[in-house]
Design brief:
31% of the residues lie in helices and 28% in strands. The protein is an alpha/beta fold. It folds into two domains: 2-138 and 188-263, Rossmann fold (3-Layer(aba) Sandwich); 139-187, CBS domain Like (Alpha-Beta Complex), CATH 3.90.1280. The chain has an eight-stranded mixed β-sheet, sandwiched between helices. Strands 7-8 form a two-stranded antiparallel sheet. The longest helix is centred in the middle third of the chain and has 18 residues, at 80-97. It is globular.
């Protein structure tokens, strides 16, 4: 197993920071998609999964989406379309530079879960999916997104081309693109799961107040044709799986359960 950090050209002419954990020979491909305003290592949980899977014969890649982590772009460049473009760019890079087989596995955390579902529209060949507290439900103007009204966000975007987004975690305000708001209102991230025929794992903390616990059941129910599906609940875990409250056992269970599933 070997690791490297590289910068992959995006469709926008920017560079995508990415971490790769590579197997020693031909292997499967694991793509990891981080959450909203997070970063590619996800507090080393992605790193742990990627490196353990590389030891098992997989090439794994995680990347910083626009305006996140070490991205050179401002946060206003963040949209589902741009994130999907970057997932595709990284997928193509791995296919060109690493010897991969037919096994494509996808892992998404929170907003990353929405992204891997949408990525399935172009890549139905994926064999396994893993959702960590995934944000897949549909939204409309009457809903809230991280305690902010979609209606107010949309109205400001329509007037100004972008809107102010207050981050409840960092307590900072960033400029959010109208593309992101429109993507969230328009894209259905559940229906792509209905014809997925591979294996799927959904991991949810029962104390998650950021993504409703019911969302895990919605994902499970939409996996109507999956050959295997499992909903794993971590008791006492919130949306950070130990990141915010010092419950390191939650992150350990998260990684352990994921790697076990991917290797089953």
């Amino acid at each position: 197993m070997r690791t490297e950090t590289i910068f992959i050209p995006s469709k926008r002419g920017t560079l995508i920071p990415a971490d790769i954990a590579a197997a020693e020979s031909k292997g499967g491909l694991l793509i990891l998609a981080h959450g909203f305003k997070a970063e590619r290592k996800e507090d080393e949980r992605f790193t742990a999964v990627a490196e353990q899977m590389a030891e098992q014969g997989f090439h794994a890649i995680s990347m910083d989406f626009p305006g996140c982590g070490e991205s050179e772009e401002p946060f206003i460049a963040y949209s589902l379309d741009h994130c999907l473009d970057d997932l595709e760019s990284c997928f193509l890079y791995m296919k060109e530079h690493y010897e991969t087989d037919e096994r494509l596995y996808l892992l998404g955390y929170s907003m990353g879960g929405r992204l891997i579902s949408l990525f399935l529209r172009k890549h139905p060949e994926a064999k396994k999916l893993v959702f960590w507290a995934a944000c897949n439900r549909s939204f409309d103007l009457d809903d809230l997104f991280l305690e902010q009204s979609f209606r107010i966000l949309k109205e400001q975007c329509d007037r100004e081309g972008s809107c102010d987004f207050y981050d409840i975690y960092t307590q900072e305000t960033d400029r959010m693109s109208s593309a992101f708001v429109n993507n969230m209102l328009e894209y259905d991230a559940l229906s792509p799961l209905e014809h997925f025929k591979g294996d799927a794992l959904i991991i949810q903390g029962d104390q998650d107040r950021t993504i409703e616990v019911e969302n895990a059941q919605w994902i499970y129910d939409h996996l109507k044709e999956a050959s295997y599906k499992e909903l794993h609940c971590i008791q006492g875990a919130d949306h950070g799986f130990g990141l915010w409250d010092g419950r390191t056992q939650d992150s350990e269970e998260l990684v352990r359960t994921t790697v076990s599933f991917l290797n089953r």
